[in-house]
Design the sequence.
C-alpha cells in the first residue's frame, strides 16, 4: 500500500510537470476503414521524433493503462481494443524498479475496432490517450483529440456561422437604449449590500462591532483609533472584492465559462448539499468553522501597524465564515452566469455593508450605546436564515434537474416544498417550533409575530403554484421555480412550447414569409423566466411576437446530440470547440454570430438571415420591449418593400 501511495504522488508530479512538456514529440494521424454497418476499424499512425519511446498499447503500468480510446458518447463501444505491431522492443524502466515494458522507438501503427449504434455520423470525435518517455522521464495518459471521417456516414447540417449577419450594420438602428448593464450592476451591488447587512446581524459578526471599535479607540487613542477602525473597515471591503479577481482572469480565456459554472450539474448538486448542511448548522445542530489554524495564523500576524490591521480584518472574515459563507455563496452562485463585473459589484456591496459599521462607529463612538444588546434575537436571525437556505438549496437542485432533464423536481413539487418551508418558518416565529439554541420561555415580540404573519401570507400566495390554472403564474417569484411546461400535469395551462431548432425555424420563416425571433435562453436562467412569465404574456407584446417565428435555443442544455450531429467547430479565433451537447451548439452559435454569452438574448432576423435591428438582453420594461419588437417588424417591411420595388 505504501508503494502504491508513493507511485500515486509520483504520477501527480509527472502530470504537473507534463503541462510544460511538449507532446509534439509524438504526432498522430488517424483514418478509418468500414468493416460492416456501424462497425469501423480506426487506424492510428504515429511519428516519433528524438529518442523518445512510445509505450505499446494495452500494458498495465503500476495500475495505469498505457493507452485508451475515449468517446464522450457512451453508446460507442470499443469491440477490439488498441493493438500495435509485434516489432516493439523490451526495455527495463529505472522508474518502476527495472520492470520490463514494450516500447516503440520509431513510427508505428495502432488499430482498434469500434461499434456505432443507430445513425452513423460523417465524422467521429474521440480522444486517444497514450504514454511515452525516455530514461527517467515519463509522461502517462497524454491526450490527442481526433476527428475522423467515416465511410457511409450521414452528413448533417451542423452549421454554426451565419455569414449574412452583420452586427455593425443591422437593417434598422431602432431598439432599446443600452442602459440595462449599468442598472444591472447597481442592482447587484444593492443586493450584495443587503446580503452584507443580513450577515452583519448574525451572531458571528454583530458582537464584533462594539468590541473591535472599543479595542481600537481605547488602545491607540480616539483620533488614531478612528483612523485604524476606518482602515479596518476598508480592508474588510477589499478582502471581499478580491474574491472576484480569479473570475476576471478565467473570463478572458473562455467567455462562456460563467454560464458553464452556473449550470454545471455536479456543481449545482454540490451547492444543494452544501446549503442543506448550512441550514442544519443555522438551526443549531452543529457549528461550521474553517480550520482553526487558518484563523490562528492570521491572528498571529496582527500588530499595531498597517499590515496588522489587514490581518485583523482577514481574521474576522475567517472566523465569521459560518454565518457569512451561506449568504456569500448565494451571492456568488446567483451572479456567476452574469460575468466577472457583476460578481465584483455584488462582492463590493457585501464588503461595504460589513466594513462600513466599523468606520461609522469609530467616527461616532456615542452610537455604540444605541446598539441593541446581543441576545436571543441573534439566534432567531440565524434560524430564519436556515429556512432561507433550505429554500435556496431547492433552486440549485432544480437547476441540475432542469439542465439534465431528470424530471425529479417539477414546478408544482417545487412550490409545494417552498410552502412547507414557509409554514415551518411561520411555526418557528410563532414560538411553536424550537431549536437547540432557542431560549426556553422566550416571549414572542409583536414585531416577530408581524414578521410571522408576512411569512404566512407569502406561503399562502404560493398555493396557486401547485394548481393547473391561470393563477399559477406567480410574478413575484418568477424565475426561481421551474418553467410552466416542466409540470406534473399533462397539459399545463400556461405552457406554450416554442421551437427549439434553428434550422426548423428558418424553414418555417421562409415558408410563411415571417421574420424570426431567436430567444437565447437557459433552463437555469432566472431572468429568462421573468421575461417569459411577466413580459411575454402582455397583450401588446404577445400580439407582436405572434408575427414572428419564435425559436428558443437553450445554451445550458446538457443533453447529448446524436452521434451524427457531434462535431468540431473552429471559431474565428482559430480555437477548436467540440460540439457534444445541445448547449454546446447553441452557446457557440450565440457567441460566434452575436458576440454575446449572456441570457436572455433576443435577436430578430429576416428569412434570409439578415439582422433587422440590434439584439437586446433582459428587458423587464414591457413598453420598451414592445417597441423593440415593432422596430424589427418595421425594418422587415421596409426590406420587403425595397425588394419589391427592385
Sequence:
Amino acid at each position: 500500500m505504501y508503494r502504491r501511495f508513493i507511485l500515486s504522488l509520483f504520477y501527480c508530479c509527472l502530470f504537473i510537470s507534463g503541462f510544460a512538456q511538449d507532446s509534439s514529440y509524438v504526432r498522430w494521424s488517424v483514418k478509418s476503414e468500414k468493416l460492416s454497418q456501424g462497425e469501423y476499424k480506426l487506424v492510428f499512425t504515429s511519428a516519433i521524433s528524438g529518442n523518445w519511446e512510445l509505450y505499446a498499447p494495452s500494458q498495465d503500468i503500476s495500475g495505469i493503462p498505457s493507452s485508451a480510446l475515449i468517446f464522450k458518447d457512451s453508446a460507442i463501444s470499443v469491440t477490439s481494443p488498441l493493438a500495435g505491431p509485434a516489432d516493439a522492443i523490451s526495455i527495463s524502466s529505472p522508474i518502476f524498479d527495472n520492470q520490463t515494458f514494450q516500447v516503440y522507438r520509431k513510427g508505428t501503427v495502432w488499430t482498434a475496432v469500434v461499434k456505432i449504434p443507430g445513425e452513423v455520423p460523417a465524422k467521429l470525435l474521440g480522444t486517444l490517450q497514450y504514454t511515452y518517455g525516455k530514461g527517467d522521464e515519463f509522461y502517462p495518459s497524454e491526450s490527442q483529440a481526433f476527428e475522423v471521417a467515416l465511410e457511409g456516414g450521414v452528413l448533417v447540417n451542423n452549421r454554426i456561422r451565419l455569414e449574412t449577419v452583420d452586427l455593425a450594420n443591422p437593417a434598422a438602428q431602432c431598439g432599446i437604449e443600452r442602459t440595462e448593464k449599468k442598472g444591472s450592476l447597481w442592482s447587484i451591488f444593492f443586493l450584495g449590500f443587503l446580503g452584507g447587512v443580513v450577515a452583519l446581524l448574525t451572531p458571528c459578526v454583530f458582537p464584533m462591532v462594539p468590541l473591535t471599535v472599543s479595542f481600537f479607540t481605547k488602545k491607540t487613542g480616539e483620533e488614531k483609533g478612528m483612523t485604524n477602525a476606518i482602515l479596518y473597515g476598508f480592508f474588510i471591503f477589499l478582502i471581499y472584492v478580491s474574491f472576484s479577481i480569479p473570475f476576471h482572469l478565467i473570463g478572458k480565456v473562455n467567455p462562456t465559462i460563467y454560464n458553464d459554472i452556473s449550470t454545471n450539474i455536479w456543481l449545482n448538486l454540490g451547492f444543494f448539499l452544501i446549503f442543506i448542511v448550512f441550514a442544519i448548522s443555522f438551526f443549531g445542530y452543529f457549528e461550521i468553522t474553517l480550520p482553526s489554524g487558518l484563523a490562528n495564523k492570521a491572528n498571529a500576524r496582527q500588530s499595531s501597524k498597517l499590515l496588522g490591521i489587514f490581518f485583523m480584518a482577514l481574521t474576522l472574515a475567517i472566523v465569521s465564515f459560518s454565518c457569512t459563507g451561506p449568504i456569500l455563496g448565494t451571492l456568488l452562485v446567483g451572479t456567476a452566469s452574469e460575468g466577472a463585473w457583476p460578481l465584483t459589484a455584488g462582492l463590493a456591496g457585501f464588503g461595504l455593508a460589513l466594513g462600513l459599521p466599523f468606520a461609522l462607529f469609530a467616527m461616532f463612538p456615542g452610537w455604540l450605546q444605541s446598539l441593541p444588546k446581543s441576545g436571543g434575537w441573534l439566534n432567531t436571525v440565524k434560524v430564519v436564515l436556515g429556512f432561507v437556505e433550505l429554500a435556496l438549496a431547492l433552486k440549485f437542485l432544480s437547476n441540475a434537474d432542469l439542465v439534465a432533464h431528470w424530471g425529479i423536481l417539477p414546478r408544482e413539487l417545487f412550490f409545494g416544498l417552498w410552502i412547507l418551508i414557509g409554514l415551518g418558518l411561520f411555526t418557528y416565529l410563532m414560538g411553536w417550533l424550537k431549536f437547540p439554541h432557542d431560549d426556553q420561555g422566550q416571549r414572542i415580540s409583536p414585531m416577530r409575530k408581524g414578521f410571522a404573519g408576512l411569512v404566512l401570507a407569502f406561503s399562502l400566495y404560493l398555493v396557486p403554484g401547485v394548481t393547473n390554472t391561470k393563477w399559477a403564474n406567480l410574478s413575484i417569484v418568477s424565475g426561481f421555480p421551474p418553467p410552466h411546461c416542466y409540470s406534473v400535469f399533462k397539459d399545463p395551462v400556461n405552457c406554450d412550447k416554442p421551437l427549439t431548432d434553428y434550422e426548423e425555424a428558418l424553414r418555417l420563416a421562409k415558408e410563411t414569409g415571417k421574420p424570426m425571433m431567436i430567444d437565447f435562453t437557459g433552463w437555469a436562467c432566472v431572468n429568462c423566466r421573468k421575461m417569459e412569465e411577466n413580459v411575454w404574456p402582455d397583450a401588446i407584446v404577445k400580439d407582436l411576437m405572434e408575427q414572428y417565428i419564435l425559436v428558443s435555443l437553450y445554451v445550458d442544455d446538457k443533453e447529448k446530440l446524436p452521434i451524427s450531429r457531434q462535431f468540431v467547430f473552429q471559431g474565428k479565433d482559430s480555437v477548436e470547440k467540440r460540439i457534444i451537447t445541445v448547449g454546446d451548439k447553441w452557446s457557440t452559435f450565440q457567441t460566434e454570430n452575436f458576440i454575446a454569452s449572456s441570457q436572455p438574448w433576443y435577436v430578430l432576423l429576416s428569412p434570409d438571415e439578415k439582422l433587422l435591428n440590434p439584439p437586446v438582453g433582459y428587458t423587464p420594461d414591457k413598453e420598451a420591449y414592445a417597441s423593440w419588437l415593432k422596430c424589427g417588424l418595421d425594418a422587415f417591411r421596409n426590406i420587403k418593400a425595397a425588394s419589391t420595388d427592385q
